[in-house]
From TrEMBL:
Organism whose genome encodes this protein: Setaria viridis
UniProt-listed InterPro entries: KIB1-4_b-propeller
Protein name: KIB1-4 beta-propeller domain-containing protein
Domain KIB1-4 beta-propeller residues, every copy: 70-325
Classification lineage: Eukaryota, Viridiplantae, Streptophyta, Embryophyta, Tracheophyta
Length: 379
């Protein structure tokens, strides 16, 4: 780390301790594994979502609602904190609303790792915005994750910066304060972020070098800023993928109109390029502006394979009623209920559309990747 950061040579076990590959544990084949009850975080076979899905969603969403009614999980560690997001390993990154301290919580073991306060990073205008609008709107995170064994990386949208810290550090270290990244996440022990030109990997600090970004793979297609195209990293079945979301024309009933379409690329770390692939390998992806979640239809049979499901606050869903998009043939499935809102393609905060009951699991996951999870309680 940079000079002045108090880093323990061998940090004690904490919420950051993850001893095995989460992607490998979550991957599932056609044969259902027998789940052995356990309290150990690293022994879960395919993630907390998979456990709940197998036991509580075995039949339909009504089972899930009964599950929610009967089981209450209390995490007092969440009190007084804003949830910045979750790592791909399932760890929760929390922001203290009074001290601005950042904490990483393992929701299974309840272990907490303490990280430095974000307050010294914030310019005066950001502090003012937080005081007026709260952390959720004043401190927006594009992505977060683990880099190595115990380094946490935060990619912040406003103010634009990529910072890292470890438990016992006395401050965050700025890695980049100039570039804006569409999305960021950890994969196989490394932290990746993507801009219009390349997928970048974070190299953690060594004895001689500070933490830095290096090019992991060139983006081999054009990302139009004028058309507000975007690219999104997602892990699916042990692969690092890059989704392209672009503006295109479509024809329906002899009428031309603009709509978003999607394409999937594999991030080939060996050749250091993005490679066109035809589909998601049987998975589906719920896509938000900064969140992307790969889901197996083996877990949720109502979800269709090789489809992109836009988040509840994405322009194509709110304004065009797109429920899902097939990567195989480009066909669109419309929403059961069109969500209506006044917004732009950049900032879709106000949603006043209605929902029919009961909602499907796709509705809930669509809300989750939107980052507007407080609205779920109203569904």
């Amino acid at each position: 780390m940079a000079a002045g950061a108090g880093v323990a040579a061998n940090p004690p076990p904490s919420a950051l301790t993850v001893t095995s590959s989460w992607a490998a544990k979550r991957a599932r084949g056609a044969r259902r594994r027998r789940h052995v009850p356990t309290r150990c975080w690293t022994d879960l076979t395919y993630g907390l979502a998979g456990v709940i899905a197998e036991h509580a969603l075995a039949h339909d969403v009504s089972d899930y609602m009964s599950f929610r009614t009967c089981v209450q999980t209390e995490l007092p560690e969440l009190d007084g904190h804003h949830l910045l997001g979750a790592t791909t390993e399932g760890l929760l990154v929390l922001h203290d609303e009074s001290t601005y301290m950042v904490r990483v919580l393992n929701p299974i073991t309840r272990q907490v790792a303490e990280l430095p306060s974000s307050y010294p990073l914030l310019p005066p205008e950001t502090r003012t915005k937080i005081s007026e609008d709260g952390l959720a709107y004043g401190f927006k995170v594009t992505g977060l994750g683990l880099a190595g064994d115990s380094t946490v990386a935060l990619c912040v949208f406003d103010p634009t910066m990529l910072v890292v810290a470890r438990p016992c550090d006395d401050r965050w270290t700025l890695v980049d304060g100039e570039q804006w990244f569409y999305s960021a996440m950890s994969f196989s022990g490394r932290f990746y972020c993507v801009n219009a030109k390349a997928v970048m990997a974070l190299e953690t600090a060594t004895a001689n070098l500070p933490p830095r970004l290096v090019v992991a793979a060139e983006v081999t297609f054009r990302v139009s800023l004028v058309c507000r195209d975007s690219v999104h990293l997602v892990e699916s079945d042990g692969r690092l993928l890059l989704l392209r979301r672009k503006l295109a024309t479509r024809v329906e009933l002899s009428t031309y109109f603009w709509l978003r379409e999607y394409k999937v690329f594999a991030v080939d770390l060996a050749t250091r390029k993005t490679v066109d692939v035809p589909d998601l390998g049987g998975s589906a992806v719920f896509l938000g502006k900064t969140r992307a979640l790969s889901v197996s239809p083996l877990v949720f049979p109502s979800i269709q394979a090789d489809r992109i499901y836009p988040a509840a606050n994405m322009w194509e869903k709110m304004e065009k009623g797109v429920g899902s998009y097939s990567l195989l043939n480009g066909r669109i499935e419309r929403c059961r209920v069109r969500i209506i809102g006044r917004s732009t393609d950049d900032d879709l905060d106000e949603i006043d559309g209605g929902w029919t009951r009961p909602c499907g699991i796709d509705d809930y996951l669509s809300w989750y990747v939107s980052g507007k999870c407080n609205e779920i309680e109203e569904i």
